[in-house]
Amino acid sequence: MLRKNSMWLLLSVLIIALDQASKYWAKAHLQFQQPYWLTSFFNLNLNFNAGAAFSFLSNEGGWQIHLFQGISIIVSIILIVWLLLLGSKQNLKALGLSLIIGGAIGNLIDRIRLNYVVDFFDFHLKDWHFATFNVADSAVCVGAFFLILSMIWQRD
Question: Is 127 marked active-site?
Answer without folding.
Answer: no
